Amino acid sequence: LTHTLQGQALLRRFVVDVCGCQTLWTAANIIDDQIARVREQVGDDEVILGLSGGVDSSVVAALLHKAIGEKLTCVFVDTGLLRWQEGDQVMAMFAEHMGVKVVRVNAADRYFAALEGVNDPEAKRKIIGNLFVEIFDEESNKLKNAKWLAQGTIYPDVIESAGSKTGKAQVIKSHHNVGGLPEHMKLGLVEPLRELFKDEVRRRGVELGLPR
Predict the structure, then answer these.
(1) Residue 180, annotated ligand binder?
(2) Is 18 labeled as ligand-binding?
(3) Mind listing the pLDDT tens digit for each residue in 45-54?
(4) pLDDT in tens, 122-131
(5) In the chain, domain spans
(6) Which Gene Ontology terms cover its molecular function (predicted)?
(7) Per the annotation, does 56 bind a ligand?
(8) Binding site annotation covers 52?
(9) Among 15-19, 49-53, 175-179, where is mean pLDDT lowest?
């Protein structure tokens, strides 16, 4: 769409003029629909979310906070691999400015020890993802009332991890939020972004008040 000359005009011509579809969707009413779905799914239960500070989990945090408020608890694992003071910025944005309940776990030493001597990118991703799940599991066990696990899974994650319904796609790269959760975690899954692409997620974030 963005890499084709007049790509948006071509698509609009096909969808609106040829197919006769109505352009009823806006970022605002899609968010309202997602909020309604989350409320219907979780009811009065509490939800836990792994907040990385990246686009996907940040949008999920903002969306769920708007949907269920204090029933959301975010766990921010500070891996020591973030940009300078990024951990403090995450806490300032969500805990201080937005009022989201965030638990910060300083895990830099554990990550540095686990990654020492590892050079292969896929091996690093596996270690980072597995250790995140391990730490997140430790923290979730402290939250006895949490019944749901929210994730920032987006559609490219599903595709790249060969996690589609057919199971026939080739693995491009692994994602710890697709098929990497321990079986003993008896939590329901909340994935409000699972059917969205990255640019759509960013637009939801702007609409929810997150910085561009």
Answers:
(1) no
(2) no
(3) 999 999 988 8
(4) 999 999 989 9
(5) 42-207
(6) ATP binding; GMP synthase activity
(7) yes
(8) yes
(9) 175-179
